[in-house]
Design goal:
The chain folds into three domains: about 10-200, no CATH class; about 205-365, GAF domain (Beta-Lactamase, 2-Layer Sandwich); about 440-585, 2-Layer Sandwich (Heat Shock Protein 90). It contains 15 helices and 13 strands. The protein has helices at about 10-15, 20-45, 60-80, 85-105, 110-125, 130-150, 155-200, 205-220, 255-265, 340-405, 410-435, 445-460, 480-500, 535-540, 545-555; strands at about 230-235, 240-245, 250-255, 270-275, 280-285, 310-320, 325-330, 465-470, 505-510, 515-520, 530-535, 560-565, 570-575. The longest helix has about 70 residues, at about 340-405. The chain is about 55% helix and about 15% strand.
Length: about 575
Amino acid sequence: MQWFTPNRYLTRLNLPSTAVDRRHIEVNLGALRFLLALLALLSYWLDLGRTHHMAGPRVPVVLLLFLVESVAVWLWARHRVISNLFLYVLHTSDVLWPIVITYFARGPIAPSVQLYSFAILAAAFRWGFPEAVMTALAGSGVLQMEAFILRESPTGLLESNRLLVRCAYLLALGYMAGTLGENEKERRAESAVTVRMLQSARSGRSVAAVLEAIFRVFREVYAASEAHLVAHEITTDQYHLWSTRPGGGLLHENLTEEAGAAAMLSAWPDSFCCARNALGNVATWPSGAQPNPHGTALDFPILPFLPPDATSLLGVCVPLGQEWHLRLLLPGAQMGRGVQQELNFARALFEQGATALYGAYLVRKLRTRAGAIERARVAREIHDGVLQSLISAEMRANILRRRSEREWPNGKPDVESLEELLRAEVLELRELMQQMRPLEVQPTQLLDHMADRVDRFRRDSGISARFTSTAADEAPFSAHACRELLLILQEALVNVRKHAHAGEVLVSFGRYENGWRLSIADDGAGFGFDGTLAGDALMQSARGPAIIKERVAGLGGELLIHSTINSGSQILILLPQKGSLKDARQ
């Protein structure tokens, strides 16, 4: 007897009815039913000599049958599986027994109200509010029919005087018991939803998997068409947006400072629900405050990632440790009559989900740090082992080349080739060690690191290299952006050494209009074409360094390549101001 109301909170929570729960309820109701049947039979024997209303040979037979059925149901509930069909039949029986008993046991002490009260309580504990109220209405209707049938008899006159009170009692009991039963099931269902979400977002899973689990649960509970998470990384002042993909999965987007601040909806409460009607009026329900169903103090949020036809929006905002601030947005969310209750649960559920999300974030951070430590250890071992051996072999090859010039001139080319090979392998290992070492760069250290990297390249490769800068001592970037810029510079220098055959390299960094400019120019062979590539044409082309293109795109910058065959090339990277940089981390 499930009432499929679309906006019913308990229906959206989707509490599974387990065999253990059904058995527990029916065993308790069976004991209460047996006690009620026993008291009804005892009342008949005690009243037998004082009134004729319950006299007659059929009354004890009916009451005994009711008692036997109560014992049978109680035993069945204790030892057999309770199916939904059995519950429907049993509830029908609970509603029919008052009709049968009061038909034979008419009078002021007939247990009709008590029996209907039991049926109402049973409906409330089995299903919830709608079923309890409908059972109360059915009981009131039966009492009305009995009063109409017996309206001419003295018993009927007496029953008519008490009819209004009895019907009011049944309706009040149905409302109260249904409310209590519904609330109890909602609390259990909320706990089940929270546990289900935490199980899906168990520790050890990726951040994306945890986000998908959170989005899935919120969309199921609030029947939302989409789910969006706006995240503000406080330490780097970065904004991110994760959204549900129509075909499944997540879409990630980096937001500018202006767009991210607008998407966080700072002027709105931490938890709110708003809806707009056909006339454009916006009703808002902030959590913990008085609802504003007719006011227009806050207009319906117009954000580019929200569907323009959304008529409702649920928003929840919670902090994530000391590093993140999260805002969950559910366009098209459906809310029942208890908006404040659902808002409170949405916030509590999202706090639990944020905790799981923070755990996944810390696990990923620890794994990254552990990987960096392991790479640093391997780099030290390479430096102390393989690299030193190669340097020693290179020195011996140099000595052998000098001897071959005097003693074995014909072998000089082979020895020189071996020396060049060893020198190249030494450079490769040094570059590999630079990539493997953990790189933590603060904005105040960026220019020094750039200059050191260029100077190290000059000493290792023998290519003339200079670094110039027009920036101040501190670059206005986050630590992550500084690290990415150094990796871009390192990749560009490696490409110059391997492919450009250049004799001179110039690296410059400084301001450029409203942003920043990093240039790596050389006089080598170029990129195999004459002209300039930039924008989408460069990103979609197979030309140009793929790793640099990915890193520049992750920083939200623009990449330009000027190339002249056999005359040199220039890689130009234009970066926006702080706050507009995108974070490439997923």
